[in-house]
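Figure caption, in words: inputs first, then the predicted bound structure.
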Amino acid sequence: MSSPDLRLWITGPLALLALGLALLSQPPAQAAGTAAAADPVKGQAVYMANCMACHGAAADGNGPAAAALKPRPTNFSSAAWWEGKDDARVRSAIKSGKPGTAMMPFSQLSNDDLTHLVAFLRTKIKP
Ligand code: HEC
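Bound structure (heme C present):
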């Protein structure tokens, strides 16, 4: 057997194996318009990049910038704050911001980001 043939015998199956593994590791395709399942871990990444400076790493309203703000950033670990607020209300507060406060509108966040963010914030509620 000449060596080019041998190489084909080895690389052929290896390439197929790699392709199979790549296909297997793909997340399931999501139908267009379907909302992503809430993922607090993804929400935490969005939070750390956009919200932590004010609301704090523990989401308790004590970020590095909080001391200079009036009113102070919301403390999401407070169960009392969440009372009577559903996800839709909190999402729209994030998207629209709060006039008269440092809470700016985050209209650039996708609906999926908002879903993940609210799921993350809920993990911070202290019983
Ligand atoms: C520049 C500082 C700052 C940043 C950055 C910031 N916030 Fe705020 N946030 C505030 C302040 C100040 C308030 C007002 C608190 C109040 O009115 O008592 C607030 C209020 C809120 C509220 C409550 C709004 C309401 O109607 O009472 C939510 C929800 C919120 N922030 C979520 C977020 C999320 C999520 C992010 C990141 C995407 C974020 N904030 C980024 C400062 C900030």
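The two ends are 72 Å apart (CA to CA).
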